[in-house]
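C-alpha cells as discussed.
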C-alpha cells in the first residue's frame, strides 16, 4: 500500500483513524489474441469498522462487493487501476458525531488487518 501513514504522527506502517491510502494494480493483456474482461475485488479481515474502500480518489464511490471491472483489448493493452481506502477520523450525520466508539474498540483490540485482492480475467467473446 502507498501513503498509509504520516511518519511524524504514527508508528511506521500503521494505519489509524484519519488516514487514507491507495493500492495501484497494473493489468496487461500483452500475449492474448482476444480481449479480456478483468475484475479486481478487495477484502479485508479484521478491518476496522470505519475503514472503507473506494473506486475514486475523492472517496465518494464506495467499492461494491463485485469490485472494479474493465476490459482490455488484445495484443498489448494495459491499464493501471486503483483501489482507494480511507479510515474516517469521525463520522458525522448532520451535527451528530458517531464512530468514535467503534474506532476506540478497534484500537484497543489492536487487530492485525490483512488485505486480500483478487484479480481475475475472462476471455471476451470475439465479434
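Sequence:
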Amino acid at each position: 500500500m502507498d501513503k498509509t501513514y504520516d511518519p511524524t504522527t504514527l508508528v511506521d506502517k500503521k494505519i489509524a483513524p484519519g488516514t487514507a491510502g491507495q493500492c495501484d494494480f497494473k493489468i496487461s493483456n500483452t500475449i492474448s489474441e482476444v480481449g479480456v474482461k478483468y475484475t479486481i475485488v478487495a477484502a479485508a479481515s479484521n478491518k476496522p469498522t470505519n475503514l472503507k474502500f473506494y473506486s475514486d480518489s475523492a472517496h465518494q464511490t464506495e467499492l461494491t462487493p463485485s469490485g472494479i471491472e474493465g476490459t482490455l483489448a488484445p495484443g498489448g493493452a494495459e491499464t493501471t487501476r486503483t483501489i482507494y481506502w480511507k479510515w474516517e477520523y469521525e463520522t458525522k450525520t448532520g451535527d451528530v458525531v458517531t464512530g468514535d466508539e467503534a474506532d476506540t474498540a478497534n484500537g484497543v483490540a489492536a487487530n492485525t488487518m490483512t488485505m486480500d485482492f483478487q484479480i481475475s480475467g475472462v476471455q471476451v467473446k470475439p465479434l
